[in-house]
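Try this one yourself first.
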């Protein structure tokens, strides 16, 4: 197995088609796909990629995608996707060699730290030994609740039935899952509903940054083509009342982003839509991940905490 490090944008773009094969084989979350990572780089990239690539017999076998970021306190190395990616890790084979190659490139670039953020339980990057000459710290960062049991709590089932009755009295409801033809309008509905929900709370939300909406417009079609995206829109009395953007991987669904119209708060569109998607996922045999954040609704649906960690390596 040979390991090389990509440090320019053109070579990084060229990796795209080969990247998908080890991602598909691994069963990894969409966060580690080329569709997600390269779209993120187009919207947030610094022009200084540090991507270690392992090849075996000419085929791409493993990959660790990072980048350099200059800050007032010094230059850092971070994983691509930082900020809007809930789970990070190495992809595929060549784990120790990939980490060693990234760290050596970072050392030569004069970094003050290499911070591998958002490592979930089971992430290889939690435990790969660092090569000599590096100090390290590991600390818990964000709670990422997952559904504790393959069933919806009785209280939530009751709440959903009542919400459906209220929606029926208002004119009925329907849930549509976006396909290639309807993805664009569904995505724009999500953006509008997300903004409306946050305005009602006196905030702005993550989509207030135009780079984030640009990212999703780029990534969503490729994710959908890989059957890695489930974007559902709820209509009540014919009006868009809620939307939920979920990521699919073998055996699990991850609820990433949502939005609801406050005008329909009495009908509880979040309860209707999330309950439908969880029921569907459980019927498919999928585990349910609520991703980063300790919002109370996640625990009401039966979520229990799994903790992400950050592993920081600094030159000795």
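Now uncover the answer:
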């Amino acid at each position: 197995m040979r390991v090389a490090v990509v440090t320019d944008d053109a070579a990084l773009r060229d990796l795209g088609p080969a990247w998908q094969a080890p991602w598909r084989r691994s069963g990894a979350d969409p966060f580690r796909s080329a569709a997600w990572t390269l779209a993120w780089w187009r919207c947030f990239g610094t022009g200084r990629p540090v991507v270690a690539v392992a090849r075996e017999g000419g085929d791409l076998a493993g990959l660790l995608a990072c980048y350099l970021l200059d800050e007032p306190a010094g230059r850092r190395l971070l994983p691509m996707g930082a900020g809007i990616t809930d789970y990070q890790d190495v992809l595929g084979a060549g784990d120790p060699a990939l980490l060693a190659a990234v760290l050596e490139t970072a050392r030569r670039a004069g970094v003050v730290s290499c911070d591998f953020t958002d490592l979930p339980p089971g992430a290889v990057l939690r435990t790969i030994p660092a090569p000599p000459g590096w100090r390290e710290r590991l600390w818990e960062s964000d709670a990422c609740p997952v559904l504790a049991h393959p069933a919806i709590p009785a209280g939530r089932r009751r709440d959903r039935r009542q919400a459906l009755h209220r929606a029926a009295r208002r004119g009925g409801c329907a849930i549509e899952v976006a396909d290639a033809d309807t993805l664009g309008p569904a995505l724009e509905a999500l953006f509008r509903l997300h903004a409306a929900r946050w305005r009602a709370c006196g905030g702005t939300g993550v989509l207030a940054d135009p780079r984030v909406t640009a990212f999703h417009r780029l990534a969503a079609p490729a994710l959908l083509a890989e059957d890695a995206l489930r974007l559902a829109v709820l209509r009540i009395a014919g009006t868009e009342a809620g939307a939920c953007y979920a990521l699919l991987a073998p055996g699990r669904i991850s609820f990433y982003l949502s939005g609801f119209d406050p005008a329909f708060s009495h009908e509880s569109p979040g309860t209707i839509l999330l309950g439908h998607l969880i029921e569907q996922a459980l019927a498919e045999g999928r585990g349910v991940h609520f991703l980063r954040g300790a919002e109370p609704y996640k625990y009401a649906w039966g979520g229990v905490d799994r903790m992400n960690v950050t592993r920081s390596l600094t030159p000795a």
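Discussion: The radius of gyration is 21 Å. The mean pLDDT is 96.
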